[in-house]
Each structure stands twice: as C-alpha cells, then as structure tokens.
C-alpha cells in the first residue's frame, strides 16, 4: 500500500509539472494524433490495392494495429523511467536511487510518467474502435476481460523491453540501440498478421521475444480466427501470460544488473 | 557503528566502441583494464565520532563512501554499518544513514524544497511530529525557511547545500556521510555548515564521516583523521598525532630587544634574519622547545617569541609527496622527546 500511494504521489507530481507547459502539451497531443493518423493511412492505402492480407481484411488489421499501438503508447507513458534510463546513469542519478530505502525497480519505474503519450493512445484507440465497428465481433464478458488482460500484458511486454535496454546501461553506459528493433520494430511487425512471416521469425517472436503472444494470438481469439490462421485454442488462451512472464524475467535481469553498477567517478 | 575490514574495490574499465554495431559488440567485449580504487582498507568508527576521511583526488575516498552507503558492491572484504551490510541490506541500511554529496543534489530538481522534504517524509515514513520538529530545528540552524518554497534548481549553491544536509537528516539517521560538503562555498556558508554539523553531532550523537579537500573543515570538525592515498590507508589516528609524527621541524620566531650581530644558537638553524627579528628552524627530536628558548634567554634579551607548527595542509602534502617518511615514522616507536610536546 505504501508503494502504491507513493507511486500515485509521484505520478501526480509528474503530471503537474508537465501541465505547467499547457500549450506545449496541447500542441504535442495534436501533433502526435495527426502523425499517427498518417501512419495508419499508409496501411489503408496498401489495402486499397490488395484488399486483403493472408485472409485478413483492412479492419481486422486495424484491430491488430490498434491493440499494439495502445500497448506501446501505454508502455511509453508508464515505463518512461526505463526508456530514458541512460540519461540517469550518465548523470550519476542512480546513486540517489541507491541511498533511498525503496526498491530500485520501483523507484526508476515511478520516476517518470509521460502524460503526452495520451495523444498516441487516443489515436490507436480510435483506430481500434472504428475497426471494431466495421467487423462483427460477438463481445462477451470473457472477451472483454481477455482483451483487457491482453492489453496490460502487451504493455508489460514493452516495458520489459525498456527494462532490458536500461539494464544494459549498467555495462555499456550508453543504451544499446538494438533494443529499438524490438520496440519500434515490434509495433510495426505487430500491426500485420503474423502468418505472413517466415516460420523462424514467427517462432522467435513467440518463444524468445513473445510479441505474438500479446497481440496476434489474442486477436485470433477475439476475432475468432483460431482455426483459419493457426494456433491451438489452449495456447492462444494462455498466450497473454507471456507478457507478464517476460516482464518478470527482465526484472530479474535488472536486479542482477544493479549489482554491476559502477557509479561515476571514483 | 562502522566496521570496515580489508575492503577492496576494483573497477573494470571497458573499452567502449561507438555506433550501432559497436554498442552491440560492447555487450560481448572482454577488452578492459582493471583499476584498483580501494585496496585492503580497514578501520572502525565508534558512535558519535566525527572522522575526516582525507586523500587527494582519485585516492578512493568516494569509492569507500559509496561502499558504505550501499551504492557500490565491494570486490572483497567486509563492511557493516549499524550492523547492516550496506550492499546486501541496502534498504535497511538506507533507513539509518544520511548521505550528502557536495557535487550532486539528492533532491528533486524541479520541486520546491518543501515538496522535496514532504516526499522524503513519505519515502522514509517519518511521523508528522518528528518531521515538524526537524524542519523547525533546521530552519533555526540553517534558515531553510528563507527558500522553502523555491524550486531546487533555482537555489544558490550554499542554499542547495543547506537543503541537502537538512534533507539527509530528516529521518534522524545514526550515521551521516558527507562527501565534500563545503565544496565551492564561501567562508560564511562554510562556517555555518560546520557549526551545524558540530551541533548535530553533539546533540544527536550522529556519527559523521566526512571527506573533504578543505583542511579547515578537518581542523574545525575532526579529532580523528583517516588518510588514504593511491587506494591504500596511510594513516588512521588523531589529528594531533599526525601533526606530531610529521612535524619534524618547527619554526621559532624571536623579536630581540636589539639587533645582535651574532644570534646563532646550537641545534637551531637561522632561516630568516632582518634587524632584530630572527627565525630559527629546529627539530623537536633534537632539542626541546623549552631548552631552546632557555638557551636563547641566557644569551640575549627578547621582546617576543613564538613557535609555529606547520599547518596541516603542509603536513598532508608531505604525506602525499613522501609516503616513505610517514611509513617509517609509523613503524618506529614515538620517542619520548616528541611525546613531550
């Protein structure tokens, strides 16, 4: 409880300081919305020519796009502390984290909150809702619950990627850029049905970096495409667990990384 | 209170490659050199002591402090603070220590001092009564009320330092680690912070470990000093002992009643002479100050006489430049002659 109330207190302070620059916030919000609208427009253009992709219609792809977009933007909003962790390491701010009687993961996690990602979330949500209205999905309580869990799981997955990037700073000081292949690249890949990719690629992004588990497989279940697009029913139902598991493993990696922190100066 | 036994820290300094593939290759890189920052240091500090931890830049002072505060994990040896092992029981240890780094603030940059303090109150779960009592006391001693509503980023260096020290003591820690607390401050601000440290130490029995370049800090605050150089411990003991060990020579200044033509005295060398004023250099090991003054008084009439000890800045310079001298001195028994001073 102590941690939860502290977390909300930190978030409150962050939001307040970001709202001090209200005009900048509003401008940024709309800039993000319009940039990402163009983003989806590109996909729509593609479909204008090909009509369907591996048995998926434009709006079904929009469903995938919306889901992964929401997860990534949410992850950027709450996981910002790990995303920009390199800065803290370079400045030596991590020393301050270590002298406080709180966990290091918790402190870095609660240190930042990027409110302006709301713009990106809004855009992804709009695409998701429009897509939803264009395809007939028989929503049930189970499906809604499953969707929410999948979204949280997807957010955990991306936060986990940020954690890996941040942890690598303990050795390299500079964040490894390779992690962007999985974050930004992951959003791109996740916007298309996985069945279009090669088998080794699909397996890598299912069992090693479980991107498909938090996006593609949940969409199969929600769109009732399990039979036609591959995947076993039980596997698909359990798939969202992978996001939580992934974050858990990266947290262990983080804990190990902290022991290798060398601070700055001697 | 603090026990340090055979503590060592080595750093692996990696060769960094730049760019995309470079950063990837860095992950698997084994190219590095080993830097020994702290080399088998042992000491203990009792409750209520103020210890000056001194050494030149890069001697390993901050690295030691960082191991005592749980920031760095020792390579070998053991540390306990309040009975906790800082790097293993980091959170428990953190509840009982206060840390101030002169070079860097631990406060929230964009928050007013008051809100930073309130956050600390939440983080350390400081009861309201204790919190208010402390804030009032720190206001009285450090006038933090003058800038309590000001964002930390707008504070002057002196104000920031006061805020940081007060913040480090809000939760009534048993040990206070101060790393260069007076760096960059003016004389008045320095004096104020020293007084505050003395008061906190006397009234609350807070143990203080202080690293500094400012030897005034040491003279005003520390009875005991630990001197390190090149990662190794060079001296641990009272400041007075250090002075005695090193002050092989002293200066005796005499104002004679008149300008005598020959003022030479056995076992003292004239280093300066102008009119009736003469300065002699002598070694207390060869001749005691009393005997020397006696010899002078027998021969001449004097107006004024004074003995100067070298200041500790000079002393410490001697240690760094001539480690052998000190090591030899430390292994030799102290002669009764020197002890008499």
Summarize this entry quickly.
Chain A is mainly α and 266 residues long.
What does the model show?
- The complex is a heterodimer of chains A (266) and B (341).
- With 266 residues, chain A is mainly alpha-helical.
- Chain A has one domain.
- Chain A has helices at 2-19, 22-50, 58-78, 80-83, 85-91, 94-98, 104-111, 118-134, 141-172, 179-190, 199-208, 211-214, 216-222, 226-229, 233-238, 241-258; strands at 52-53, 56-57.
- Chain A has a two-stranded antiparallel ribbon.
- In chain A, helix 2 (22-50) runs parallel beside helix 8 and helix 3 packs antiparallel against helix 10 (179-190).
- The longest helix of chain A is centred in the middle third of the chain and has 32 residues, at 141-172.
- The radius of gyration of chain A is 19 Å and the shape is globular.
- The two termini of chain A are 37 Å apart.
- Chain B contains 13 helices and 13 strands.
- Chain B has helices at 19-28, 61-68, 90-95, 113-124, 128-142, 157-169, 187-204, 215-221, 239-246, 289-299, 312-321, 323-331, 336-339; strands at 2-14, 32-45, 50-54, 76-81, 97-101, 175-179, 207-211, 224-229, 232-238, 250-256, 269-274, 277-282, 302-308.
- The two termini of chain B are 32 Å apart.
- Mean pLDDT of chain B is 85; it is low at 332-341.
- The interface between A and B is large, with 30 and 41 residues.
Question: Oligomeric form of this entry?
Answer: heterodimer
Q: What is the CATH topology assignment of the largest domain in chain B? A: Rossmann fold
Proportion of helical residues of chain B: 25-40%
Instruction: Tell me what the CATH architecture of the largest domain in chain B is.
Output: 3-Layer(aba) Sandwich
What number of domains of chain A? 1
Which two protein chains have the largest interface (Cβ within 8 Å of the partner's Cβ), and how many residues from each? A-B, 30 and 41 residues
Largest beta sheet of chain A, briefly? 2 strands, antiparallel
Strand percent estimate of chain B = 25-35%
Let me know the number of strands of chain A.
2
Instruction: Quickly name the level 1 CATH class of the largest domain in chain B.
Output: Alpha Beta
| CA distance, first residue to last residue of chain B | 32 Å
Mean pLDDT of chain B: 85
Q: Give start-end ranges of low-pLDDT stretches of chain A.
A: none
Head-to-tail CA distance between termini of chain A: 37 Å
Quickly count the helices of chain A.
Answer: 16
Strand content of chain A: under 5%
CATH level 4 superfamily of the largest domain in chain B: P-loop containing nucleotide triphosphate hydrolases
Q: Secondary-structure element order of chain B, as H and E?
A: EHEEHEHEHHHEHEHEEHEEEHEHHH
């Amino acid at each position: 409880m102590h941690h939860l109330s502290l977390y909300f207190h930190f978030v409150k302070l962050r939001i307040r300081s970001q709202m001090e620059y209200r005009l900048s916030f509003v401008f940024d919000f709309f800039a993000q919305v319009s940039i990402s609208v163009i983003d989806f427009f590109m996909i729509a253009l593609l479909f204008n020519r090909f009509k369907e992709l591996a048995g998926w219609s434009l709006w079904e792809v929009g469903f995938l796009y919306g889901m992964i977009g929401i997860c990534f933007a949410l992850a950027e909003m709450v996981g910002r502390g790990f995303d920009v962790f390199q800065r803290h390491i370079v400045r030596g701010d991590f020393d301050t984290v270590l002298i406080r009687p709180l966990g290091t993961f918790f402190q870095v996690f609660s240190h930042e909150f990027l409110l302006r990602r709301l713009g990106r979330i809004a855009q992804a949500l709009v695409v998701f809702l429009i897509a939803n209205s264009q395809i007939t999905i028989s929503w049930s309580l189970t499906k809604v619950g499953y969707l929410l869990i999948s979204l949280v799981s997807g957010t955990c997955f991306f936060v986990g990627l940020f954690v890996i990037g941040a942890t690598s700073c303990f050795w390299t000081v500079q964040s490894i850029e390779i992690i962007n292949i999985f974050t930004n690249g992951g959003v791109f890949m996740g916007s298309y049905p996985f069945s279009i990719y090669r088998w080794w690629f699909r397996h890598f992004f299912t069992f090693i970096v479980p991107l498909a588990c938090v996006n593609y497989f949940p969409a199969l279940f929600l769109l009732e495409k399990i039979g036609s697009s591959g995947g076993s029913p039980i596997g698909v139902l359990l798939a969202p667990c992978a996001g939580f598991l992934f974050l858990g493993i990266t947290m262990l990696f983080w804990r190990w990384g902290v022991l290798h922190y060398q601070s700055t100066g001697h | 209170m603090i026990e340090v036994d055979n503590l060592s820290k080595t750093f692996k300094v990696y060769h960094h490659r730049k760019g995309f593939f470079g950063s990837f290759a860095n992950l698997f890189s084994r190219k590095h050199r080993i830097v020994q920052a702290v080399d088998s240091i042992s000491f203990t500090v009792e409750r209520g002591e103020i210890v000056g931890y001194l050494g030149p830049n890069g001697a390993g002072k901050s690295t030691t402090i960082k191991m005592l505060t749980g920031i760095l994990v020792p390579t070998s040896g053991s540390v306990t603070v309040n009975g906790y092992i800082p790097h293993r029981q980091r959170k428990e240890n953190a509840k009982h220590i206060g840390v101030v780094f002169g070079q860097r603030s631990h406060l929230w940059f964009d928050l007013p001092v008051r809100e930073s303090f309130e956050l600390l109150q939440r983080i350390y779960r400081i009861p309201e009564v204790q919190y208010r009592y402390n804030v009032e006391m720190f206001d009285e001693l450090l006038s933090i009320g003058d800038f309590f509503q000001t964002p930390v980023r707008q504070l002057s260096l002196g104000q920031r330092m006061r805020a940081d020290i007060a913040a480090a003591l809000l939760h009534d820690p048993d040990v206070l680690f101060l790393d260069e607390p007076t760096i960059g401050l003016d004389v008045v601000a320095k004096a104020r912070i020293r007084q505050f440290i003395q008061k906190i130490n006397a009234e609350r029995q807070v143990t203080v470990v202080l690293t500094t370049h400012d030897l005034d800090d040491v003279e005003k605050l520390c009875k005991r000093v630990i001197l390190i150089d090149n990662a190794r411990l060079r001296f641990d003991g009272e400041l007075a002992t250090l002075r005695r060990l090193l002050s092989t020579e002293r200066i005796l200044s005499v104002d004679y009643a008149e300008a005598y033509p020959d003022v030479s005295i056995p076992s003292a060398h004239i280093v300066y002479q102008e009119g009736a004023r003469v300065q002699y250099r002598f070694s207390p090991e060869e001749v005691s100050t009393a005997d020397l003054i006696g010899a002078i008084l027998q021969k001449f009439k004097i107006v004024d006489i004074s003995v100067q000890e070298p200041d500790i800045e000079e002393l410490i310079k001697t240690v760094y430049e001539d480690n052998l001298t000190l090591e030899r001195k430390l292994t030799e028994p102290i002669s009764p002659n020197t002890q008499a001073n």
